[in-house]
Design brief:
Shape of chain A: globular
Largest sheet of chain A: 11 strands, antiparallel
CATH class of the largest domain in chain B: Alpha Beta
Number of strands of chain A: 15
Largest interface: A-B, 42 and 46 residues
Oligomer: heterodimer
Radius of gyration of chain B: 24 Å
Strand content of chain A: over 45%
CATH architecture of the largest domain in chain B: 4-Layer Sandwich
CATH class of one domain in chain A: Alpha Beta
Distance between the termini of chain A: 42 Å
CATH superfamily of one domain in chain A: Mitochondrial biogenesis AIM24
Radius of gyration of chain A: 18 Å
Chain lengths: ~230, ~350
C-alpha cells in the first residue's frame, strides 16, 4: 500500500495505490473516488474475523459502527480519500506498537493493523468532549487527518494538551485527565475544561484547531433542528 | 512566485528533431522556420512570468510532444533588493542585468518574442493572462488566491457579455451593466440550483469583473472548442457568450436517488468556462472507468458514460457512509474536489441548536 498526500496542507487528499489483494480499511464516508476494479465491503468488524461483541462495543463507544474495506481485483487499484473538514493529513508506520488515535482523525490503515475501538483510556464522558478513541495495533501504515495543521510534540517529561487538539499519541506515554487552571471553577470558566497530561517519553500529534470549538461557534448562526 | 520556461533543446523518447519542430510550431502557432531557429538557439526561454501551475502545464504538454524543458524561478525579488542594497553579490547583479535587458529590449533570446510574436506585441495581454492552454483564444483573465481561495478576474472586451453565476460577482468596473436572465430555462428550478445566471455586459469599452465562487477552494478554466462538458450544479462559475449552459434532467433514478443533489449542467459550444471546487481540485485522466462519490464530482468530459449505483452490497449502501456513487465508464477526464459540501453540512448538523418545545 502506497500513500501519497496531495494538495497539502489545507485541502489534503490521499491517493492510495493498492497492489492486487492488498486491502485498505477506511473510515466510513472517507472515499472520494476509486478505480473501477475496486471491491468494497462494509463491515462492522475487522474483515474475516467475526466479532459481534466488538461491533457492539464500537456502537457504545459512539463511533460509527461501520468501516469499509477496499480491495482491488485483477490488478492494482487506486483509491482517493478525503476528510469532511479542511486540514492536513499524516501517515505513520506502525512497527509492532500501538498508537492511540482520536476517533475523528482516523482515515485509513492497512488491513493487518488491528483496530480496537473500545479503548477507554479517557472516559469521554469526563473529558467533556464527545470524542472517542481508537487503539491501532500491530504493523502497517496508518493515515490520519487533522482539522487545520498537524504538528508533533516530542514529550520527554510532562506536557499538557487540550483533548480536542489531540490527533494521536504513542501508547508509551502515560496520561491522566486533569484541570487546566488552579481550581475546577477556573478551569471551567476559562473554557478549557479538562485537559490531558502526558508523562513519559513519546510523541503527541496535535491539530491546530479544535473541531468542537469550531462547531460550537457555528451554533448561534444555525437554524434550530427538531431533535 | 513567477517562473520561466526554458527549452533545453533535448528531445525525449526518440522524438525526431523535425517532429519536435513541427509540434512546437503548431503549439505556438508560428512558422516552422521560426521554431527551427528557436531549437537552434537552445537552451532558450520560451515563456516567462508564468505561475507554477501554468508552467507545469506547458512542461507537460511539451513533454508529451517529446520536447524537454525546465521551469526556472524568475528572481524578480532580487531585482528590488538590488536597488536598495547596491552591494549585492556579483552573480545576483549579473542575473539582474540579464533580466532587465530581457524586459527592456525584448531581446528575442530571453522573451516569448522568439516563439510567439503576437504575445509580446501586446505585453500587457501576456502579463494579465494566466493559465490559458491556448494563449490566443478566449478572454483575458487572472487567477488569484489559488489553490485554497480561488478568485478570478475576467477582462470583458467592449460590448461583449459574460455569464456569471448569480451572487458570485465581487467587484466590477462601473461601465459594466448587469442583467439577470433565466438561463437554463425552467429546468433550472428542478435542478435545485437556486441561483440564476447574471449577464455582465461591458458597455462602451472593456471592463473587468472580479468573481468569487461561493465555496472556498480552487478554480479552474477551460476553453471549450465545440466541446461539451458536464458540471455538477454548484461548480459553475462563469462562461462566455459562446458557451451554451443548460441543465440536463437526470431522470428519476439518476437525480432523485443520488440523494446528494447530483444535478448536472451541460456546457457546450465555443468559449471560456470557469468552474470551482470545494477544497482542492484533482484532475484525472480516465482510461477504463472510475468510481466517484457523488459529492466529490466537479466535472467530466462528454466521452464518459455514467450511472448512479451503490458502492458495494446493500449493506454498504446504507452503512458505508458513501451512499450512492457515480460509476463512470469509457475514456475521458474527470475533475474531483477533495471536500464535499454535503459532508460538511452533515458534520455541522449536530451543532445546530435544538428547538425548545413550547
Amino acid at each position: 500500500m502506497q500513500i501519497e498526500l496531495m494538495h497539502q496542507p489545507g485541502n489534503t487528499a490521499a491517493k492510495i495505490i493498492l497492489a492486487e489483494n492488498e486491502i485498505c480499511t477506511t473510515e466510513a464516508g472517507a472515499m472520494i473516488a476509486t478505480s473501477n476494479n475496486m471491491d468494497v465491503t462494509t463491515t462492522t468488524h475487522k474483515k474475516q474475523s467475526r466479532g459481534i461483541l466488538k461491533a457492539a462495543k464500537r456502537l457504545l463507544s459512539g463511533e460509527s459502527f461501520f468501516i469499509n474495506h477496499f480491495e482491488p481485483k485483477g490488478g492494482p487499484g487506486e483509491l482517493w480519500l478525503g476528510a469532511n473538514l479542511a486540514g492536513d493529513m499524516m501517515t505513520y508506520d506502525l512497527d509492532n506498537e500501538s498508537l492511540i488515535v482520536q476517533g475523528g482523525s482516523f482515515v485509513a490503515c492497512e488491513h493487518q493493523v488491528e483496530i480496537d475501538l473500545g479503548w477507554q483510556g479517557f472516559k469521554s464522558l469526563f473529558s467533556g468532549e464527545s470524542i472517542f478513541w481508537l487503539n491501532l495495533k500491530g504493523n502497517g501504515k496508518v493515515l490520519l487527518n487533522s482539522f487545520g495543521a498537524i504538528y508533533p510534540i516530542e514529550v520527554d517529561g510532562e506536557m499538557i494538551v487540550d483533548s480536542g487538539h489531540i490527533v494521536a499519541f504513542n501508547e508509551t506515554l502515560d496520561f491522566s485527565i486533569t484541570k487546566a487552571g488552579k481550581s475546577w471553577l477556573h478551569s471551567f470558566l476559562g473554557g478549557e475544561g479538562l485537559v490531558c497530561k502526558f508523562e513519559g517519553k513519546g510523541t503527541v500529534w496535535c491539530q491546530s484547531h479544535n473541531p468542537g470549538s469550531f462547531g460550537s461557534s457555528l451554533t448561534s448562526g444555525l437554524k434550530p433542528r427538531k431533535a | 512566485m513567477n517562473y520561466k520556461i526554458v527549452l533545453t533543446g533535448k528531445l525525449l523518447d526518440d522524438t525526431s528533431l523535425e517532429g519536435a519542430i513541427e509540434s512546437l510550431a503548431t503549439m505556438f502557432r508560428i512558422p516552422s522556420e521560426k521554431a527551427e531557429k528557436t531549437f537552434a538557439r537552445a537552451p532558450i526561454t520560451i515563456k516567462k512570468s508564468v505561475d507554477e501551475a501554468t508552467g507545469k502545464k506547458y512542461k507537460m504538454a511539451l513533454a508529451k510532444k517529446g520536447i524537454e524543458c525546465t521551469l526556472e524561478v524568475l528572481e524578480q525579488r532580487v531585482l528590488a533588493e538590488d536597488v536598495v542594497q547596491p552591494d549585492t553579490s556579483v552573480t545576483a547583479s549579473v542575473q539582474n542585468e540579464q533580466l532587465v535587458e530581457g524586459v527592456a529590449t525584448d531581446s528575442p533570446i530571453s522573451s516569448v518574442a522568439a516563439v510567439s510574436p503576437e504575445n509580446t506585441a501586446n505585453s500587457q495581454h501576456e502579463e494579465f493572462k494566466h493559465d490559458n492552454a491556448d494563449p490566443l483564444l478566449g478572454y483575458q483573465f487572472q487567477f488569484e488566491g489559488r489553490p485554497d481561495y480561488g478568485f478570478v478576474t475576467v477582462k470583458i472586451p467592449a460590448d461583449e457579455t459574460l455569464k456569471v453565476e448569480a451572487s458570485a460577482m465581487a467587484t466590477m468596473d462601473t461601465n459594466i451593466k448587469m442583467k439577470t436572465k433565466l438561463g437554463g430555462g425552467f429546468s433550472r428550478f428542478l435542478t435545485g440550483e437556486s441561483l440564476f445566471i447574471n449577464e455582465y455586459t461591458a458597455e462602451g469599452g472593456q471592463g473587468e469583473v472580479g468573481i468569487a465562487p461561493a465555496s472556498p477552494g480552487d478554480i479552474g478554466h477551460m476553453f471549450l472548442n465545440d466541446e461539451t462538458i458536464y458540471l455538477q450544479n454548484s461548480a459553475y462559475v462563469a462562461s462566455t457568450a459562446g458557451v451554451e449552459v443548460e441543465t440536463k434532467w437526470q431522470g428519476l433514478t439518476k437525480g432523485f436517488f443520488s440523494g446528494e443533489n447530483l444535478f448536472l449542467i451541460r456546457c457546450k459550444g465555443k468559449g471560456d468556462l470557469w468552474f470551482n471546487t470545494y477544497g482542492a481540485m484533482i484532475e484525472l485522466d480516465v482510461d477504463d472507468g472510475y468510481v466517484v462519490d457523488t459529492g466529490n464530482i466537479v466535472a467530466f468530459t462528454e466521452g464518459l458514460e455514467y450511472s448512479i449505483s451503490k458502492v458495494g452490497g446493500y449493506k454498504s449502501l446504507f452503512f458505508s457512509g458513501e451512499g450512492f456513487v457515480c460509476r463512470f465508464s469509457g475514456k475521458g477526464k474527470i475533475w474531483l474536489q477533495t471536500r464535499g459540501v454535503d459532508a460538511f453540512a452533515s458534520w455541522v448538523h449536530p451543532f445546530r441548536p435544538v428547538k425548545n418545545k413550547g
